[in-house]
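Full entry
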Amino acid sequence: MEDSSMSPGSVRSLPLLAFTISLLSLHVHRLDSVSFKVIGPDRPIRVLVGEDALLPCHLSPSMSAESMEVRWFRSTLSAVVHLYRDGRDHAGQQIAPYRSRTKLLKDGIANGTVSLRIHNITPSDEGTYGCHFQSPTFYEEAALELEVAGLGSTPHLSVDGYQDGGIHVVCESAGWYPKPQVLWRDLSGQRLAPVMEKISQQADRLFDTHTAAVIRDASNQNLSCSVLNPRLSQERTATMHIADVFLPRTSPCQLALSVTLAGVVFLSLLASYCFWKQHRAKDTQQAELKKQILKEFRRNLPLPRPRPWLRVS
């Protein structure tokens, strides 16, 4: 009996059908496993304390990332700064310091471009960030650096009395990052050496400065205190003018008078010493003379006569 379920034509079409299915499968596999690169900025992003940071990241070649997972993180993938998955943000996955502080900008996500905005930057936000893209069959990431800088308050100058023969001037400022430098200058721009300098880091990691200088010379009565941020190459400066009446000054007449008075005092002391020494020598000489006279007097006294009524037994 002949099997009429398969005709010769259908038998010949089976290899063609299998080839077509294999080709389609291979094409779909290639689409799923397409590779890409993640591109971030090639230099650190610098942001001032209190401002917002914008961290850019994009895919190359351009392709939609709407169905991908986009993860921003710090040291490891689990240290999530922001997570986008299944077409929505997952705020509950963020580590504590970044909760309610981030926003993923998705305007260009159809072309593979996303940027992360971090609000109210602090020194603790400084460091390395990772931008991670993951499709069902491929993943890639890039790293970028965030630098934080704090331009502190304008220095406050105050006079804190007299010290070491001059006027003690104090300079204070707060809110700097990283550690600043403090420069004292006179009117001509020459640097003055501080007599005290204290730069301390507070709990928020910002630095406060407390320095002092002593002004002894009238040529330094106009002085300035500058606090410099070495990362920004920017400084804040305060100046002060000290009136002549407050400065310790010595005129030539005063100097001559001082020298004359010192000489008079020295001569007076010398004369007193000489007079005392001469008087003491005279007293010693008179005492010796008295001793000699008394000795001679005792030597010339007559011997006592024997008394007859006294008998010696």
In short: The longest helix spans residues 252-299. Helices lie at 8-32, 252-299. Residues 1-8, 10-32 have pLDDT under 50 and may be disordered. The first strand starts at residue 37 and ends at 39.
